[in-house]
Amino acid sequence: MDHSKKPFVLMSAFVGSHLSAVLPIAQNLVSQGYDVYFLTPTARRSMVEATGAKFVPLLGAADFTEEDFDSMGPGKTESQKSGPEGLIYDMIHYFLNPIPAQYESIQSALRDFKAKDASRPVVLLNEAAFGGALCVKLGASGLVPAGLISIGIVPLPITSADTAPFGPGLPPDSTPAGRERNIAMNQQILETLFKEPQEAFQNALKSTGASTTPYFFFDAAVRVPDRFVQMCHPALEYPRSDAPSNIVFAGSFPPNESGNWANRPEWWDDVAVNSEKKRIVFVCQGTFQTNYKDLILPTMESFREDPSVLVVAALGVRGSSIPSETVPANCRVVDFIPFEEILPYATVFVTNGGYGGVQKAISAGVPMVIGGASEDKPEVAGRAEWAGIGVNLRTATPTKEAVSEAVNEILGNPKYTQKVQEIAADLKKSYRPFATIAKAIDEIAAVYKDGNMS
What we know:
It comes from Coleophoma cylindrospora. The protein has 454 residues and is of the alpha/beta class. The chain has helices at residues 16-20, 23-31, 45-49, 83-96, 99-117, 176-191, 195-207, 217-223, 269-272, 296-302, 339-342, 355-364, 377-387, 400-411, 415-430, 433-446; strands spanning 8-12, 35-40, 54-57, 122-127, 147-152, 227-230, 247-249, 279-284, 309-314, 331-334, 348-351, 368-370, 390-392.
């Protein structure tokens, strides 16, 4: 397609991993000749511009990052710092209340596009948690783009008769009794735990002139867009007989090129050469929940006396360290390590269940032990267990005995490695995530009629 005839692409994402997860899409689209504009907080300008996309600032109350959370809303009580109450607080103040300002930011950008070339289509491409984009499909006042594509970078959260409510990580159950249970639980949680967030969602929509929707926010994020592109292999999602037809599985992002890590530790040959042919257990605490005592310490202690195992621990925060006396002789600790560098050597990955890290491990064909209890992590762990590619610890703070049992289950049972390597092979063979997204953009733009952005 001629560059001047490609649609404008307006991307949007705002906090933490939600932004970093979709930056590779921007970079790839730019390389294909699309004019990519990216709505994101002012503080993240350099991240966007590094992809070659054009930075567009979020406006007003939408211009914030996770560093601003403590100053938003009335402030968390002790009970709101974790668990269900914490989830509700976060949803309302960080994801739902900013919707009107997010929508106004989109409208400002659309007005600029119209001034540039009113005949050229604009396709919105948002990370699914960016709720302001939904307003363009729900009749809000203002300009209407050619279409909306949402990118799913967390487990699919949609309500289904075949699955329990999203959050606690319960397994699917499509038997008659299971469906009856699921329907009752889903209804109950919407009428209790999620009642206040749903009211906040509907109020945010109404303030933009959009119509209210019968969908809960999690469902609207998936069902309202023209296309919903889920960034995983379908083997990592529960089958749902009532899933909407707009969902497309694009597979995982291909791994970055290895070999670009400039600051390899002096012990790196213990991993890359591994002359003693040790089994390598890689443990990463994550970049948000970073207490090394949660996963790293029990993993190191699990194998302190096992000379056949080398534990490699990544603390998740650049410049961080732990007391040297806590590190056994068969362990190596580093503040940060690119997954692309370590996963090709790993036998098992012990993780707190961050979706991006799990997807990278799947692409590398590495089975997992997952211990996470916050955000979407129980759902990530549940899917890995259901798919047969990992062991679910069902806690973020396991004992060393629990970690040892889980890792040894994988080391002693080849079914986990075989299954994850089957999925990894199919990802390489059958899925082209960037091409899938570009195809969706072009198909939506193809039905655009001159002057319909009005």
